[in-house]
């Protein structure tokens, strides 16, 4: 995987557990990964192995032998991935709507992960094949992938620390009067374990939104995430009683405006996925610190629906 790593325990870490001291000395790797190497004998302290809970005194020589471990067992497949940025440490994919990110029941082949396993040698050793965050199957847009353990760990930490800026475009049912924030915890829906919902005992979830265009019965919004809970944007807008257009899980009424053109009626009925697109990613490169920013426009079906709504507004005015 890589050459051995060698450091001496600094005095200020004296008395700490070995696994905690290692996490502070080797921040490029997660504590759980370092602990697994300790348990496998890949870490020596002054030439001897220790348990993760054993204390360090300070001054000891630590030698870590990083070990590649197969974290993913899915098969690589050649897929036509739309990669908008790539270097030796990371890549950003513009995921199409309908593409599943992780293999699962009913989706064992043809997923983004299968494509990544074919595209990047050795990425099967990384958790989730390097995928830093996920997008729902029917959500399009930008998705970030770390290509090695160091960059993946750094990017996952940056995401947890809210140092990765993620903007989405969405079309929701209802006419919003202005932008705002939804601060409502999200947890598994106790009545339907497939769905998420706002729950008092859920995990903190914050969504910011800004109105871009208003139509007669819908609103085009820019959305920014502070947190990244499962289905967060979809759940928060449904909680506001403004579900995303086309959302087959959290949606409901189409929000058909009175006197809508037949073209708009048909377009709303045909749009069978949530109108949600991950349009912008901005973050510091894990190695260089340089700001990486990528922006991609929504796919054709999203833009077509917007244009039809604009025509309806013009027609009614």
Key structural traits:
single chain, 7 helices, 317 residues, 14 strands, alpha+beta, elongated, 22% helix, three-stranded antiparallel sheet, nine-stranded mixed sheet
Write the layout of secondary structure elements.
Layout: E1 5-8, H1 18-25, H2 31-39, E2 43-45, E3 61-64, E4 83-86, E5 90-95, H3 112-119, E6 140-146, H4 149-160, E7 165-173, E8 180-183, E9 186-188, E10 196-198, E11 206-214, E12 218-225, H5 232-239, H6 262-270, E13 276-284, E14 291-295, H7 300-316
Parallel strand pairs: 6-13
Antiparallel strand pairs: 1-3, 2-3, 4-5, 5-6, 7-12, 7-13, 8-11, 9-10, 11-12, 13-14
How much of the sequence lies in strands comes to: 15-25%
Write down the oligomeric state. single chain
What general outline do the C-alpha atoms trace? Answer: elongated
Please compute the radius of gyration using only Cα atoms.
23 Å
The helix fraction, in percent, is: 10-25%
Number of helices: 7
Secondary structure tally: strands: 14
Distance between the termini: 64 Å
Poorly predicted regions are none
Structural class: alpha+beta
Mean pLDDT: 90
Element order: H for helix, E for strand: EHHEEEEHEHEEEEEEHHEEH
Major sheet summary line:
9 strands, mixed
Describe this structure in words.
The protein has 317 residues and is of the alpha+beta class. The protein has helices at 18-25, 31-39, 112-119, 149-160, 232-239, 262-270, 300-316, and strands at residues 5-8, 43-45, 61-64, 83-86, 90-95, 140-146, 165-173, 180-183, 186-188, 196-198, 206-214, 218-225, 276-284, 291-295. The strands form three sheets. Strands 4, 5, 6, 7, 8, 11, 12, 13 and 14 form a nine-stranded mixed beta sheet that branches. The chain has a three-stranded antiparallel beta sheet with strand order 1-3-2. Strand 13 and strand 14 form a beta hairpin. Helix 6 (262-270) runs antiparallel to helix 7 (300-316). The radius of gyration is 23 Å and the shape is elongated. The N and C termini lie far apart (64 Å). The model has no long low-confidence stretch (mean pLDDT 90).
